[in-house]
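Practice problem: predict the structure.
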Amino acid sequence: MTAAIALVLLIGISILSLCLPPAVALIMSARRLSSASDERRSVLRAAMYVSGAILVFNTALILFNPPELHGLDDGLSRLHAIGLVLSWLCLWGALAMAFLMRVRRRTYP
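Answer:
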């Protein structure tokens, strides 16, 4: 019973750490796309494609190669490390987008 609980907890933590930052970056770049200038639109579209590809990669990684419970040394593979690095980059990209690219609010008279 405790192994099943630990496995569910491990998969939940891996979903949060691998899929949440790319999803947030994708949502933030899509939200800023409508009010961006022309030179920023291409950058935001590229950010949407990259974060979407990272989200698909990390989701497939969790579905087809879930982390194992043997021990801390052999629980994560190289693909998991690559997914964590890509997710970490998406997290910092989303933070940079939040602080450097403000959403212009429209005021109606």
